[in-house]
């Protein structure tokens, strides 16, 4: 009996990737086969992203491509919350479902491509299907967000924060580790808020009484003995308690904190979480406890009303904060976001000019910080082996978004291994090292 085949396109952030993995796991458990080719597929599922204007366009283009190459398309994910917009552009899509919509996607698939039941091919690995290479995996700890940042429509699409119980999250992490995963990336919309919605509900994990709380999660994940990396953390005071775990080598000395801006007035207009915290002081204190901490962040330039002076305040912040990795966007209005009503939009050419200045400013800082690592010895994780050598990542580099460490002539190494290298060279993004 030949299985029914589904093409799957996963767009957007790591959080969307985790949703895709859940959908794929269920599809495989129902005997569907997943194919990378439009031509072989009986239908195509597109998991979309709707965070910023450019992501919306990319999603709409991907739907168009799937329609013209295959013809039978089901749309899910963040952009699915804006069904009319999708149908205006692509009236022939079969079904549109929003986020949180695992069951809806599955019933849409059943409707248009009923499953064949075969219990012998229904077996799937207990850790589920993963889209990321086997040696790292994403762990989604919550869904939704209690904040209402004025440029963001995620809460209107995904709803308020719903944290997964700590025992369930730890169970999933353990399955990943048992399946050979060497690095877990913790993702959510706001990792530091984990458990707030459940009033830090208690749970039992391997005989330990724990709370559904950021600290308990980090401290217990550390027991797995693999790399644990924290994404989407906000600079609240309670995050200070996590940093000693980094200094002790329990979790990776890495924090991904989307600061978005540095001017108090703009942060207030953005309605950012922890907007009134003194971020520079906090960063300084963290580095005192854990000098090797890597801080990654993202920023928006050209937010409505941003003056030249406020933009320069942001550059000043970059100089002071000495962040390691930084991504930036020029502000682009997202349909339905409150920030669209704000006065004094920044003209397009000024936004672009500020983005260029911002990137030039930060590139010099990132390059210098990488250069400072030349001569140091570091443990790296091998991601890929090619003819010329191995491509790895250090503790400072998250997959997809940060840099890499190239090791020439090390093609005998294996993906998923940890090795020690001495850093020999650096540019503004990547490092080169030799095996020790
Ligand atoms: S913290 Fe702000 S930007 Fe992030 S998901 Fe929540 S509302 Fe959106």
How would you describe the overall organization of this protein?
The protein has 436 residues and is of the alpha/beta class. Helices cover 32% and strands 23% of the residues. It is built from twelve helices and 20 strands. The strands form six sheets. A five-stranded parallel β-sheet has the order 2-1-3-4-5, sandwiched between helices. The termini are far apart. Iron/sulfur cluster binds next to α5.
Furnish the topology, listing elements before pairings.
Layout: E1 5-10, H1 14-29, E2 33-35, E3 43-48, H2 53-69, E4 73-77, H3 83-89, E5 95-96, H4 102-112, E6 136-140, E7 142-143, H5 154-158, E8 162-163, H6 166-178, E9 183-187, E10 202-205, E11 208-211, H7 214-221, E12 227-230, H8 243-247, E13 254-256, H9 264-270, H10 279-289, E14 294-301, H11 308-321, E15 325-330, H12 348-371, E16 377-386, E17 389-394, E18 405-408, E19 418-426, E20 431-435
Parallel strand pairs: 1-2, 1-3, 3-4, 4-5, 6-9, 9-12, 13-14, 14-15, 18-20
Antiparallel strand pairs: 7-8, 10-11, 16-17, 16-19, 17-18, 19-20
Helix pairs in contact: 11-12
This protein binds iron/sulfur cluster.
């Amino acid at each position: 009996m030949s299985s029914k085949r589904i093409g799957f396109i996963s767009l957007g952030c790591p959080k969307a990737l985790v949703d895709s993995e859940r959908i794929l796991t269920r599809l495989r458990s129902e005997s569907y086969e997943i194919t990378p080719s439009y031509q072989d597929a009986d239908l195509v599922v597109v998991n979309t992203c709707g965070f910023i204007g450019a992501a919306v366009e990319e999603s709409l283009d991907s739907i168009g491509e799937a329609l013209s190459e295959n013809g039978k398309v089901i749309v899910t994910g963040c952009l699915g919350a804006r069904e009319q917009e999708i149908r205006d552009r692509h009236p022939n899509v079969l079904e549109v479902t929003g986020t949180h919509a695992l069951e809806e996607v599955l019933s849409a698939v059943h409707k248009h491509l009923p499953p064949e039941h075969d219990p012998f091919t229904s077996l799937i690995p207990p850790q589920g299907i993963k889209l990321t290479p086997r040696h790292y995996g994403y762990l989604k700890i919550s869904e939704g967000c209690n904040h209402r940042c004025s440029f963001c429509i995620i809460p209107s699409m995904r709803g308020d924060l719903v944290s997964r119980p700590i025992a369930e999250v730890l169970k999933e992490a353990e399955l990943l580790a048992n399946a050979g995963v060497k690095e877990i990336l913790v993702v959510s919309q706001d990792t530091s808020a984990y458990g707030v919605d459940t009033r830090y509900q208690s749970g039992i994990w391997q005989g330990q009484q724990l709370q559904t709380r950021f600290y308990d999660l980090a401290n217990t994940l550390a027991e797995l003995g693999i790399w644990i990396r924290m994404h989407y953390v906000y600079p609240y005071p309670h995050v200070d308690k996590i940093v000693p775990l980094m200094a002790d080598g329990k979790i990776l000395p890495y924090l991904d904190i989307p600061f978005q801006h540095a001017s108090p007035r703009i942060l207030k207009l953005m309605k950012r979480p922890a907007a009134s915290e003194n971020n520079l002081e906090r960063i300084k204190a963290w580095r005192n406890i854990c000098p090797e901490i890597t801080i990654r962040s993202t920023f928006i330039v050209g937010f409505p009303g941003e003056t030249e002076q406020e933009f320069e305040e942001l550059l000043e912040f970059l100089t002071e904060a000495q962040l390691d990795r930084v991504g930036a966007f020029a502000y682009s209005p997202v349909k339905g976001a409150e920030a669209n009503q704000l006065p004094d939009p920044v003209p397009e050419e000024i936004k672009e000019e500020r983005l260029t200045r911002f990137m030039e400013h930060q590139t010099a800082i990132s390059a210098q910080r990488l250069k400072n690592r030349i001569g140091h010895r570091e443990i790296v994780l091998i991601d890929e082996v090619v003819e010329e050598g191995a491509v790895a990542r250090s503790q400072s580099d998250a997959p997809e978004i940060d840099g890499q460490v190239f090791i020439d002539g090390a093609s005998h190494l294996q993906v998923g291994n940890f090795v020690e290298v001495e850093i020999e060279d650096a540019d503004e993004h990547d490092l080169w090292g030799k095996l020790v």
